[in-house]
Amino acid sequence: MIRWIIPEKLGTAAYGEHTREEETVEVDARTLVDKHGNSPAALLEKINQGASGLSAGHKVVVVCDFGVSRSNTIAAGILARWKNLDIDQAVAEVVSLTGESSIKLDMVETLRIAFGHKHGASNRDNILITGGRGFIGAALARRLASHLQVLAPTRAELELLGPTTALDRYCRQHEIGTIVHLAYPRIYTSNDAMGESLRMLRNVMDACKTNGMHLVLPSSWVVFSGYRTSGMIADPGTAPRPRGVYGETKFLEEALVHSAVENGELTATIIRLSPVFGADSLRPRLIRFAQQYLLEGRTIVTHRYRNGLPRLQLLFVDDAVSGIAAVIERGKAPVYQLGGTAAYEPREIVNAVAKLLNRKAKIEETLIDDYAANVFLDCGSAEREFDWRPATELETGLRHTLRWIGESA
Fold first, then answer.
1. DSSP characters for 114-145?
2. 3-state helix, strand, coil in the chain (%, to 5)
3. Which of 71, 216, 338, 388 is such that its CA lies 20 to 30 A from the CA of 101?
4. Separation between Cα atoms, residue 128 and residue 202, nearest integer Å
């Protein structure tokens, strides 16, 4: 089947899946590789063949194995030449008209070189925050905006599950030098979320590789969630042991980034965070749950696991953001960890909430036939390099959080 870009004049197809007709020029892109390494001259040869066919009044069909990346890249080059379009504009038009979002950025970059376009400028101080309208992202954007150029587009403005070429074009237009990748599916514990999160990260990584941008990937303590301990300190060199979809997804994200860095494809920094709380967040859910039940005078049921009580190394959002900002501005290590100064049992958190609400907590425990992962992050490298340490006491952080819950109710 031919997907027409210029109706009945220029189209793309998988090799062998279109009817060959007289007066049709077939441009075969299968001799190219669908990745980095093609010579600009090889692309120009295919583009000139197609443009000459159009000039002679013929139909032109560009083919490759699947009719996806190589064929659409060559078609974009033909379209750019035929209509005198900018490369990015031609690529966007091809993506729109074919519905194909999988054009490889390596191919597009070689196409730019073939047309004599120089690589656009980037500025490390121009920062794109994906998920920049979310809980941590919005707080980080506010902090960095005072001295850096920060962009935090909505999903409508930049869809990370869409064509990678759209992200690439956005970064070029705004001369982005650093991407802080916080975007994540709203429902984060499903198998679908794993696929979506890895797809988003892969698109971000491809854009970083092509444009020489630095990637900052906030991760989580959950890469250690498979450990069964009553209390374990994990430093940046501790071997990850994830459990569950969310932990496994974060582990896979880190592995993808580590692999790309080791292959010399990009530069990146990973920041592992302990559970972050504060205004504008529904997590950890225990805080909102406790507030609701205390106001209603109901008994709060907490959990005891086979290895004892769980504990949360809570980190207030302002402290998390100050640490992330320090890493963005001065970080040199591949991995940093940011966590709270103390870990709290559920009973301690509930009683702290009760004190602020001037209520008496009624707490019962139920046994869970499983293990809690009481793993706490060693934040020594951030403290040594940036003099970073959490500054917000639990009671202060909870007061801000409860005020927001009350105002948003």
1. HTTPPPPP-EEEEEEEETTTSHHHHHHHHHHT
2. 45, 20, 35
3. 216
4. 16
Q: Which long-range contacts (CB under 8 A, 24 or more apart) does 347-351 make?
A: 347/302, 347/309, 349/286, 349/287, 349/290, 349/312, 349/314, 349/394, 349/398, 350/286, 350/290, 350/294, 350/300, 350/302
Please say whether the beta carbons of 343 and 374 come within 8 A. yes
Q: What does residue 88 show for φ and ψ, rounded to 5 degrees?
A: -60, -40
How crowded is the C-beta side of 3, counted as CA atoms within 13 Å? Answer: 21
Q: What is the structure's pLDDT at 409?
A: 60
Which tokens go with 284? 């950890």
Q: pLDDT tens across 130-189, in order? A: 999 999 999 999 999 999 999 999 999 999 999 999 999 999 999 999 999 999 998 888
Residues 6+ apart with CB under 8 A from 174: 126, 128, 151
Candidates 223, 123, 222, 139; CA nearest to 182 is 139
The predicted-structure confidence for 211-221, as pLDDT tens digits, reads as follows 999 999 999 99
Separation of CA 387 from chain center: 28
pLDDT reading at 403 higher than 80: yes
Record the tokens describing residue 299, joined without a space. 């008994």
In the chain, what are the domains? 3-114 (3.90.190.10), 123-408 (3.40.50.720)
